[in-house]
Every structure is written in C-alpha cells, then in structure tokens.
Design brief:
This protein has about 425 residues and is mainly alpha-helical. It has a single domain, classed as Amino acid/polyamine transporter I. Helix content is about 75%, strand content about 0%. The longest helix is centred in the middle third of the chain and has 31 residues. The protein starts with a helix and ends with a helix.
C-alpha cells in the first residue's frame, strides 16, 4: 500500500469516528436536572414571591404545566430523530427547510454561549467570596477548566456534572427538609398555598408570576442534544425529559413554600439572596455554606451549556450546514474537540468583553422562540404524514398545538409586560 493510499484510508477512518453511545437514562436525567435546576430558582424565587405572595407555588405549577406541553413535543421529536443537532433537525424536517433548521441550530448555540458566559460571571462572584483574585483571572480559569472537562469525554464530563447536580439538588432538598422540620407553619399553613381561583385578580397575579417562573424550567430541552451519545434513545430520552420536568417542579414547589413560610413573601421578594437568607434563618449557619453550593450550581450550568453548544455545532457540521471541521471527533476522547474548543473560547470572550446585562433574559426569550418553532415543526410533521412511525414516543396532535399556543402566549405577555 503506497503513501497516498494510506493517507486516504486514514482520512476515511478519521471521518468515520463518531460520538460514543455510552450514556444511560440516569446520565441523561442528571444532565437535564443540572441544566434546569440552578440560577432560575436562586434568582427567580424572590420576584415570583413578590408578585404572587403565598400563591407563588401555584405560579410554579402553572409554569410547569405549560412547559410540559413543549416537553412532550421534544420527547416525541427526540425519538423520531435522535440526533445531536436536535432542534435544528426538527425544524428542518418540519418546515422542509434546511436554512430554517440551520438558523435555529445557530440560535441554540448562541443561547448556550451567552447563557454560559452569564453564569461564568455569576460563578466568579461566588468564588471571590472565598478568594480575592481578580475577576478576570477567576472567570478565565473557570471557563477553561469547564471546557477542558467537557472535552475530556462525554461520560466523564456528564458524570462530573451529575456529581455537581447531586450536590446542588441536595442543597435545595436540605432547605426543604429543614423547613418542614423547623419552620413554623410549614405544614399547618399549607391551605394558604391553594389560591381562591374564583377571583379574577388572583388569576391575574398567578399568571403574571407564572411568566417569571417559566424561565426557571428552561433547560430540559438540552437533553435532546446528547441523543447520539445516549443508549436506546427512543426509550431513554422521553423518560429523562419528562422525569426532569416532574422532579424539578416538585423541588421548586417545596423550596418556594418553605421559603415563604420562613421569611414571608415581602422579605423574600426584597432580599438579594433569598435562599441564602432562608438557609441562615433555618440553620443559623453562615451564608458561605449556601455560597459554596451556588458555586457548584453555576459550574454545573457552565459545563452543561458548553456540552450542549458543542453537540449542536457537531450536528450541524454533520449535516453540512457549517464547516466540516466542527464534526471532527477525537479518536481518544470521542468528543468533538474543535467544536468544544471554539465554544469554550467564545464563552470566555463574551464573559470577558461583552456587557451581559439583560443577555440572560434575552436568552430565555429566544429559547421560547425556539420552543415555538419546535412545536410548530411537530404540528407540520404530524399533519402531513398518513401513518405514524412505529417504536417512537407519540403525543396527540393537540399537544404541540397547545405548546405552540402557550409559548407564543408567553412571548406576547412578556412583550406587553415590558
């Protein structure tokens, strides 16, 4: 075999290296929880409590019910097309437009990068509670370290994120348990959490707070972007997506209720670090304990967002929508190293150079726009097919229609509120 033939054979072999299908349903679930649970509950619990008062748990339940419609749509599409490109593939198929799919895919990447950059700045602030190093140095170290872990290997990076998810979730569960053990009225005042729905004003309050609460549930959709690395995706992806939403809802509702009875809605709505204050009130321990847990939560969000953006870039490159270099998978790590490296550098660049005030809110609105496109795609797919495919998770047609209506409604309501 001559040198040219060997080079050609090596090139073909390199192109055939693909992502490793090694994630179990537990990996996917913990990855989903890690993306979803985090900054949302830490930041939004105050504003929601300030708006809805003791009915705040009802607002979170309402938000969860509305988001569940899109979750079911994602579950079906993930089993129809278990690919890393996720939303891009769904929209391309639904609208029969490769350009539309590419636009949505790039939008998902942009959302992940800006979100990760925003979280990186928040993480640096928590870290500097324990270390007075310059913020620029801390942000750089955090982003590069999380990027390196994401490049290490999918099982390794997801396992790392899973451990942080357990710690992060454990902190919230600790607040919930301590609240029911020591907060006066945590059990006896439960009837106050059931609002009088016969009053129009009550509905208006719950809906207004629900608009804020919905952003705390964004993240579960990231599970679909590890579809090519998940074992038995047709079976495991719907389970992970729906379980993520259910578990997140239960944790949010319990933590919100405990926080309300511990501090009261007025104090909870005015404090800058609501969960830290709840923790201090219940335990008497220093607020630095909750700050440490917050560091874990933010690091988790960074690595999860980097993984998500890199997988979407990989999927788009495999489809030929962006340069093929992003589809290269390292033979040793079985991860898309180029996509991961570029994603990490972009996150670092945004974190260090771009004013990020308001970008988190923009990311959430753009995510809802992506949800609308995904639901519309499923409606289009289901209405034009004469026979439903076998061995996939199937939802009734009304589900994506309702999901589309709900996401558009949230966007309109948000626009009016501004």
């Amino acid at each position: 075999m001559d040198a040219n033939t060997q080079a050609s054979t090596s090139a073909v072999a390199a192109q055939q290296v693909t992502l490793k299908r090694s994630l179990t349903v537990w990996h996917a679930l913990l990855y989903g929880l890690g993306i979803t649970i985090g900054a949302g509950i830490y930041v939004l619990i105050g504003p929601v409590a300030k708006t809805a008062g003791m009915a705040a748990p009802a607002s979170f339940v309402l938000a969860a019910l509305l988001m569940s419609l899109s979750a079911v749509s994602f579950a079906e599409l993930a089993t129809r097309m278990p690919v890393a490109a996720g939303e891009a593939a769904y929209v391309a198929e639904g609208f029969r437009s490769r350009i539309a799919g590419t636009v949505v895919g790039l939008l998902v990447i942009a959302i992940s990068i800006t979100t990760s950059a925003t979280i990186s700045l928040g993480s640096a602030q928590y870290i500097r509670v324990f270390n007075t190093a310059p913020e620029l140095l801390v942000v750089t170290a955090v982003v590069l370290l999380m990027g390196a872990i994401a490049a290490w290997g999918i099982v390794e990076s997801i396992t790392f994120a899973a451990i942080m998810t357990i710690i992060e979730t454990g902190g919230l569960l600790l607040i919930a348990i301590l609240g029911f053990l020591f907060a006066p009225g945590a059990v006896t005042r439960l009837p106050e959490a059931l609002p009088d729905l016969s009053q129009v004003a009550v509905w208006q309050t719950i809906l207004s707070a629900g608009l804020l609460a919905v952003f705390a549930f964004i993240g579960f959709e990231g599970i679909v972007n590890v579809a090519e690395e998940t074992k038995d995706p047709e079976r495991n992806l719907p389970r992970a997506i729906l379980a993520t939403l259910v578990i997140t809802t239960l944790i949010y509702v319990v933590v919100v209720w405990v926080s309300l009875v511990t501090l009261g809605p007025d104090t909870l709505g005015e404090t800058e670090a609501p969960l830290a204050n709840v923790f201090v009130r219940l335990t008497g321990w220093p607020a630095t304990v909750m700050a440490a847990i917050a560091i874990v939560a933010t690091l988790n969000g960074i690595i999860a967002s980097i993984i998500l953006a890199a997988r979407v870039a990989y999927g788009l490159a495999r489809r030929g929508d962006i340069p093929a270099v992003f589809a290269r998978v390292n033979r040793m790590t079985r991860t898309p190293l180029v996509a991961t490296l570029v994603t990490t550098l972009l996150v670092l660049g945004f974190a260090l150079a771009v004013p990020l005030t308001g970008l988190a809110e923009l990311s959430s609105r753009l995510t809802l726009a992506v949800f609308a496109a995904v639901n519309a795609s499923l409606v289009a797919i289901k209405t034009r097919e004469t026979r439903a495919p076998e061995h996939v998770f199937l939802a009734p047609l009304w589900v994506p229609i309702a999901g589309l209506t709900a996401t558009i409604g949230f966007l309109i309501a948000d626009l009016i509120a501004r």
